[in-house]
Every structure is written in structure tokens, then in C-alpha cells.
Design brief:
The chain is α/β, with parallel strands linked by helices. It contains 14 helices and 14 strands. A hairpin with a 4-residue loop joins β6 and β7. Bound molecules: pyridoxal-5'-phosphate.
């Protein structure tokens, strides 16, 4: 017997209450019963995004909402500024290129946040940039980008700010309306404690205006059509019924905890994880602007990160994420978003210490756990 722990930044664990809710018999989606559930989810999403605009639900993984953002806002030949500091930043650019947009890449060293000045300079240099596309949290490098400051740059200009908040929404407070974020996207399988399969997107008033003039081809991801349907508590096409039933339960749990407490919990777990990693003498991947969604660290010299990750999964039963592209085999990423609590961090750090000790790393067993415990005890 091996007990398994899922500590990767997506998909993330799903609470039992939510799993049981989703095991209920399928109901038909064109019924008052389903519309009542949809309506609760719709209001919950607005509360989570902190927006008065509709937050639309799509049956897709998170990337579906990213593609929806691109095809609903732009015309072929438009120029977009893409913050490219990791795999997901790169994805914004690739989607844009697939639809014939001109991409101005703002390359950021992996592990760093984008410099606000660099965005300001790019916008000044080319005022015709239609939008800045970025991540709230760049999961591949465990970096948080300065969304609030970026929104201050784009507010009152003709440039939209489009934020992939897939590992930021529900982790940190990102009040869409107050900050002036034009498009915010998230997905079900990260901080929302659900299986993969739902994507969410909201547009500001000026983004909706842009939508009216945007001519890129679209059919399934036609947000105007979804907005008209979802205002009536239904969807244009068959919704992912069970996931929506699960989402209603997720909101019940989240709002019972209180959003501020949700953010605080993420912050405490993230600080504890970082302290644990530091106490083990491991080099952090994002030293200056770490995200509260996940913590990345370089594996020590001479220890192969790919083998460490595989051993942690297959021998110890603990699944983390490794690195991609030039970070493949070099890093481990520990998640702390969604259904995560104190003792998930103890499991994470304990397993890392034990497997590093086996691999010959000379940090004393318990050092990382002890450093984390001091911070985690703030919760009690
Ligand atoms: C997971 C993730 C995505 C991609 O979502 P999929 O659900 O795999 O399509 C996009 N952006 C970020 C920041 C993510 O963490």
C-alpha cells in the first residue's frame, strides 16, 4: 500500500465534499434546477473576480479561455505585447500568432517578474499596442507579476490589460474592477479545487467595446453569445454539468472561510514553504517575486531533478512538478494553491528532505520542516 499525495500546481486535490457533490446523478441542463445552480456559480464568480461584469464559464481547460480572450478582442494584424517569462507567457504569444496577430515579445528571464518600466517603455515606444498579455502568476517559474502596477499603466489608454490568472485568482486578491484589469481568465483545476474542465473569463466594459469591433474567426468561443445566454442562467452549448455542481460546493466552502482568509492561508503556506526550502540550503527559482501559488527550487548540483521528482512520486508517493524547457531536470515545484493546508507543507518538505538525504545532500533531516512549522503555527 502506498498513500499518494498530489502536490503539483495543477491539477490540484479536490475536497471530499466536492467529489461527493459531483458524484450525484447528472441533471438536464435546460431545467430550472440547473439554472438555479448556474445562477449561484455566476454570482460566486463575480464575487471571486470582484467585478460587476459577467464572468463567463466555458467547458474547456484554462487555455480555452486564453484563446477566447484573443479571438474575441482583436483583429488580424493587431500588435500585442506579450510578457514572456515562462511557458505560459509563451503560450499567449503562440495563440496570438496562430490568429495572425503581431507579437512584440517582452522577454523576461525565467524566475524574474516583468519590470514595470520595461512595459511602460514598450507602450511609449509603440502606442498602437492593442493589449498587454501577461500572467498573474507564471506557474512554470513560480513568479508573481506586478498586475496592479501594470493596470496603472494601461488604465486610461487604448491598451487593454489581459491577465491569465489561472494560478492567481483564488490565491491572491486581484480585484478586477478596482485595479482596472480588462480581461481576467482562470480555470477550474488550480485554486478552484475542482477537476480540470472549466475555464472562466471576464471582460471590462472597454474590452466588451473592443469585442464589438473584433473580427477574428470564432464559433465555440463566441463570448457575446455566451454573455447573452449566461445572463439568462444558461449556456450556449451543453455545460459541464457535474463540474458546475462541484463549483457551487467550492463557493460554499470558499465563502464560508472568507476570501480574505483564503488569501491569508495561501500567503502563510507560501512563506512557510519558502522558509523550508531556504533552511535546506536550496536555491529558490523566484527569489525576488515569488508567487503564492507554488514554490520552485533548484535541485543541488549533482542531483538530477528529473530523477528526484520521479523518486518522490514512485517511491515516496508524493507528486510534485518538475521543470520545462531549459529548466527540465533542474527544478522541483511544490504547489500550495487550492485545497492545501498546514500539513500538506509538512508532507512536502518532509518528503523532499528524505529524498535529498537519500541522494546524498547534506542538510539535516527536519531542518526544512522545522523552519516551516514556525511560520505555519501562525495559523493557530
Ligand atoms: C495551468 C495553467 C494554464 C493552462 O491551463 P490548462 O488548463 O492546462 O489549459 C495557463 N496558465 C497558467 C498560468 C497555468 O498555471
Amino acid at each position: 500500500m502506498k498513500k499518494r499525495y498530489l502536490l503539483s500546481p495543477g491539477p490540484t486535490p479536490v475536497p471530499e465534499e466536492v467529489l461527493l457533490e459531483m458524484a450525484k446523478p447528472i441533471m438536464h441542463h435546460r431545467t430550472p434546477q440547473f439554472s438555479a445552480i448556474f445562477s449561484e456559480c455566476y454570482k460566486g464568480l463575480q464575487k471571486l473576480f470582484k467585478t460587476g461584469q459577467p464572468v463567463l464559464t466555458l467547458a474547456a481547460s484554462g487555455t480555452g479561455a486564453m484563446e477566447a480572450a484573443v479571438v474575441n478582442l482583436f483583429n488580424a494584424g493587431d500588435t500585442v505585447l506579450v510578457v514572456n517569462g515562462g511557458k505560459f507567457g509563451e503560450r499567449w504569444g503562440k495563440i496570438s500568432q496562430a490568429y495572425g496577430l503581431k507579437v512584440e515579445w517582452l522577454n523576461v528571464e525565467w524566475g524574474q517578474a516583468v519590470a514595470v518600466d520595461a512595459v511602460a517603455a514598450a507602450l511609449k515606444n509603440n502606442p498602437s499596442i492593442a493589449a498587454v498579455l501577461t500572467q498573474g502568476s507564471e506557474t512554470s517559474t513560480t513568479v508573481a507579476h506586478p498586475i496592479r502596477e501594470l493596470a496603472q499603466l494601461t488604465k486610461g489608454t487604448d491598451t487593454l490589460l489581459v491577465v491569465d490568472g489561472i494560478t492567481a485568482v483564488g490565491v491572491v486578491d486581484m480585484p478586477m474592477d478596482e485595479w482596472g484589469i480588462d480581461v481576467m481568465v482562470t480555470g477550474s483545476q488550480k485554486a478552484l479545487m475542482l477537476p480540470p474542465g472549466l475555464a472562466f473569463i471576464a471582460l471590462s466594459e472597454r474590452a466588451w467595446k473592443r469585442n464589438a469591433a473584433a473580427k477574428l474567426p470564432r464559433y465555440y468561443f463566441d463570448l457575446k453569445r455566451e454573455r447573452d445566454n449566461q445572463a439568462k442562467d444558461t449556456t450556449a452549448y451543453t455545460p459541464a454539468v457535474s463540474l458546475m455542481i462541484g463549483l457551487r460546493k467550492v463557493f460554499e466552502l470558499m465563502f464560508a472561510e472568507g476570501l480574505d482568509n483564503v488569501y491569508k492561508r495561501h500567503d502563510t503556506l507560501a512563506r512557510a514553504c519558502r522558509a523550508g526550502v531556504a533552511a535546506l540550503g536550496l536555491k529558490p527559482l523566484a527569489p525576488l517575486s515569488p508567487a503564492n501559488s507554488a514554490t520552485g527550487f533548484f535541485t543541488p548540483d549533482g542531483i538530477d531533478g528529473g530523477k528526484l521528482e520521479k523518486g518522490l512520486r514512485d517511491n515516496y508517493g508524493v507528486t510534485f512538478a518538475g521543470g520545462q524547457d531549459h529548466l527540465k531536470g533542474k527544478i522541483i515545484r511544490v504547489a500550495h494553491l487550492g485545497y492545501f493546508d498546514t500539513f500538506d507543507m509538512i508532507v512536502a518538505l518532509g518528503a523532499i528532505e528524505m529524498s535529498l538525504a537519500k541522494a546524498g545532500h547534506n542538510a539535516p533531516l527536519g531542518a526544512g520542516v522545522a523552519a516551516a512549522q514556525k511560520i505555519l503555527n501562525e495559523r493557530y
